[in-house]
What we know:
By secondary structure, this protein is α+β, with helices and mostly antiparallel strands. The chain has twelve helices and ten strands. The chain has helices at about 25-40, 55-65, 70-75, 110-130, 160-165, 170-175, 210-235, 235-250, 260-275, 280-290, 295-300, 305-315, and strands at about 5-15, 45-50, 80-85, 90-95, 100-105, 130-135, 135-140, 150-155, 180, 195-200. The strands form two sheets. An eight-stranded antiparallel β-sheet has the order 2-3-4-5-1-8-10-9. A two-stranded antiparallel ribbon has the order 6-7. α2 (about 55-65) crosses α11, α8 packs across α9 and α11 packs across α12. The longest helix is centred in the C-terminal third of the chain and has 26 residues, at about 210-235.
Amino acid sequence: MKNAISTRIRFAxxxxxxxxxxxxxxxxxxxxxxxxxxxxxxxxxxxxxxMSALSDIRAGELVEKHLISPEFAENRENCxxxxxxxxxxxxxxxxxxxxxxxxxxxxxxxxxxxxKAKELDEKLNEALTFAYSNDxxxxxxxxxxxxxxxxxxxxxxxxxxTEAGTIGKVPSMLSxxxxxxxxxxGEGSRSGGSIYQISNQISLGxxxxxxxxxxxxxxxxxxxxxxxxAAKLFEGEKxxxxxxxxxxxxxxARSISSxxxxxxLSDVRFGVEAGKIDIDLxxxxxxxxxxxxxxxxxxxxxxxRDTVRAEKIRTTL
Length: 317
């Protein structure tokens, strides 16, 4: 599935017998943070980051890499994140629930990501014992997460559907399967570079396997529609000219903003997906993360951010 950028599985979990975060005092949150940190670190190779000691730029970089949520970056007091040294695992502590266990992998790999997340989830449950009801499933702060408390999502690139204006029909189709479409950084965010997140909207009364099956079914339909529209768009010279112009600008620009770079990288990716441009998709996807504002700021070392971004793109391409 060429238009799949990444796959994510996330579990919301709370510890049995412990109050929800909304009812806890600051010192209780701190105590819980340290308890989860010490327990989780014994289960594998993780690096702990105290969010309250993190700069805005560094927190923003973690959001850009989809390792934490935007809300978590905004409210960092008595919060922490455990980053797996495998580069795909993260555990947010004291976000909305006690734990948010996440596995994010490149490309399309729902089942593999689920197995990795479930393995970690089971190990943590043995050590901490999660709050669970036979009637409601895993107990969560937000009722919409009850049941499996799992969010499965695939980030997809849909330039043809976006350009044709038919992307607006996708939400109604997804709702029939209990799914939804979100922007680049989840609920409430906008799409950037024709990138969207397809994920489940409900987790109560349905198994993890059924959620994954529904997403696979819908993605198959969306991908086929994208492929058909893309073929029509490339029948004339206009679209092909645009994607090669985008590649030319990216290869030779000396200064470029993140918004322009994201748009142009989307056009180049469109050309690669259509078989018109010979560049590895993983190269484009890695660049798309690395040229975001906070990530670029951290590597700029006092230099002009737009200049550093352009140099990074030129060197990579």
